Amino acid sequence: MPHYLGQDDFHRQSDPGASSGNVADQGIYTARVRHHFHCVIGENQFERPQQSYRSCSEPSPTPSKLWLGLALKTSDHGIAEIGFVCHDGTYAVDFAVHELYSRATEHRRDDAGSAADGLTDHIITTIRDYEGIHVAKFVGAGISPCLAEKSPGLHARLWAELDILPIVLTHGEAGQKAIEPGSKPVELDEEADAMARKCIAFYGPNGVPSLRFGSFNDVQVDIAGRSTFGSLEIYVQTVDDRSARTVLSYAHSLRLANLQIAFFTATADRGGAAVMRHALLRFMHLAGVDGIWCVPRPRPEILRILQTNERILQGTTKFGQRFTCEQQQMVTSWVVHNAECLWVRDGAPLAPRSRGGAGLLVIDDPHMAVLVTIAKRLDPQRPVIYRSHFVVHPDRVADPPSTATHAWDWVWSHAKAADLFISHPPAKTLLPHTVPRERLGYMPPTIDWLDGFSKTMSDRDVRYYLQEFDHVCRREQMPTLVYPGRDYIVQIAPFERSEGIGNALAAYAAFRCHSRFCAGKTPEQTPQLVLCSLSSANDPDQAEVLDRALAVLRDEHPTLKDSVII
Which CATH class is domain 460-565? Predict the structure, then answer.
């Protein structure tokens, strides 16, 4: 809470509409609250969550999920007005307006950086205190263009410090038009309310922003750049100096060459390949490298075939399942149709470079390998990279009559025309012998240290997501986590035969029964096991694998059923 506002003044103001707010020193700014937040929490309500947070034996109250609207108005007199609006997805539930007075001196008159930092500090502190006092969790924030310009570091700090996804609205989306003669400017609280509502509009029914696509069915990463939650400087700090210099040197070369890199995958979500592609495109845009990521228009029937064929190549499918000639023709026709409709016209990424096409193509999916053939027919000299993102064991595709060999032969008939074959598993022993070693490269999985999978979060945010997870467990009639009362072991992997879900259960049973760590301990003193996976509509075997895991737990390890969450 800002030190210039007492707890009662800030949250229990008897006259919320009072305009004589408290004044305090904020470094380069002097701050004054013109409109206080209206929501009131009584003393008993305030004490109840604080007590339950200190106790592990009682469940904590779940924070209210809210969205935030932030807007800024500045004047020539050094006054900055900040509008805050809290929205629950249906109504605006609270608002406040703060005024910051610039204290320019001979030494600070031109210090725009200090002014921006002071503005950002004030906003971050206000939001953090509101969440703590009102037991709330802001999941997203709509930021006006003016505020984004005056406080360029705000979006990164909202994400890093408060786990709030920032969405910077453009001038057109914010409704900021030239003021016509005789018209009145939009009031600050009205603009902040619009920012909150427009932020909510980007979210889907599952509570996360929906994917958006461009004219080439290209994935608009981070809501077309509106929700960029880092900066190039921050990313550079996540690696050592040598790696940073190398990457920035490559980025500089690509910018000088004015080279566009086009990626093609079968889907834009689910699975590690999509996660890595989101992260790579995000970084490329920050580094000024021209990149585009295209996916075909989905057909559920085709996606089901693709999922089954991947299992055939991995050797985990049911006996007798094949990638038939009819299915091969269906997949080929689907890829060709999307290429003709979306990607080969002038200016599209697959078009020849003489007609504005991309300078480098990366085909990142076995079933999109047909694009290698198309690309080479359109522009034979253009470099094409094919990347294999799962293991195709050589012994599995060495037997001519096998179903895996039949499927691999179709993939390789197109992929062999690529200039470079990149293997996701970095080992020659996990590659078919037909892949020429002189055209082979390796690239292991990579992660984004700043995205929602990997970043560091505060204890309060971790507690919020653990409570959300407990709600999911109760809905699925599973045991809930007892953390921090009990530690837990987690495996996050697809529910596929190749991922060894049954092996994880067997290993956990052996750990509980035979390890020195668990010796002499009661079940309540041992770690729990959590097996998690993303659901997938085009995955025919996922429900079967899940059902089998539950049956194994019930029949073979009944004493562990209260300690395992699937």
Answer: alpha beta
Q: Are 7-201 and 460-565 equal in CATH topology? A: no
What are 100's two structure tokens? Answer: 């910051």
**Which pLDDT score is estimated for 107?**
47
Name the superfamily (CATH) of residues 221-442: Glycogen Phosphorylase B; (3.40.50.2000)
Reduced to 3 DSSP states, what percent helix, strand and coil does the chain have, rounded to the nearest 5? Answer: 40, 15, 40
How far apart CA 23 and CA 5 sit, in angstroms, is 8
DSSP state letter for 343? I
256-272 pLDDT, tens digit per residue, is 999 999 999 998 886 77
Domain boundaries, the chain: 7-201, 221-442, 460-565
Q: Is the pLDDT of residue 542 over 90?
A: no
Enter the DSSP assignment of 296: P
Residue 334 pLDDT = 96
CA distance 390 to 142: 39
Cβ–Cβ under 8 Å, residues 342 and 217: yes
Backbone angle region of 289, left / alpha / beta, with phi > 0 → left and psi within -120 to 50 → alpha: beta
Side chain identity at 328, as an amino acid letter? Q
Q: Please, what is the average pLDDT of the chain?
A: 84
Please determine, for residue 248, whether its predicted confidence score (pLDDT) is greater than 70: yes
pLDDT at 14: 33
pLDDT at position 479: 93
pLDDT in tens, 413-455: 999 999 999 988 777 777 888 889 899 998 888 888 888 888 8
* Under 8 Å between Cβ of 561 and 529: no
Task: Kindly report the CATH number that applies to the domain delimited by 7-201.
Answer: 3.30.420
User: Which residue type occupies 491?
Assistant: Q
Q: Is 453 helix (H, G, I), strand (E, B) or coil?
A: coil
Rounded Cα–Cα distance for residues 277 and 265 (Å):
9
Give residue for tokens 């060709």: 336
SS3 state of residue 184: coil
Q: Which pLDDT does position 11 carry in this prediction? A: 36
Average pLDDT of span 492-513: 84
Enter the tokens of residue 408.
Answer: 């691999």
Query: Measuring CA to CA, how many Å separate 258 from each of 132, 134, 232, 343, 479?
Result: 48, 50, 19, 20, 55
Find the Cα–Cα–Cα–Cα dihedral 375, 423, 445, 448, rounded to 10°. -30
Contact predicate 264/371, CB 8 Å: yes
* Beta pairing class for 528-532 and 564-565: parallel
Q: CA 99 to CA 82: how far, in whole Å?
A: 6
